[in-house]
Amino acid sequence: MGAKGLIETYKPKLAICVYHKCEDPVSIVEYLAQLVPEYQFYMRHYTYSQHETVLYAV
Known about the structure:
24% strand; alpha+beta
C-alpha cells in the first residue's frame, strides 16, 4: 500500500468508492481504522443500484 505512510502521517479526509467488491466496506474500514484510529466513518449511497456507494473517512 503506497499511501500508507502518507495516511498515517497526514490523516487526510478520504472519499473512497466501495462498491467494487462486497467485502470492501468492511475491509477498508478495518484497514483505515488501524492506520488512523481517530477516523470517523460515514457511508453514502447515491443511486438505486449498487454503484456509487462512497465511504468517507474524516
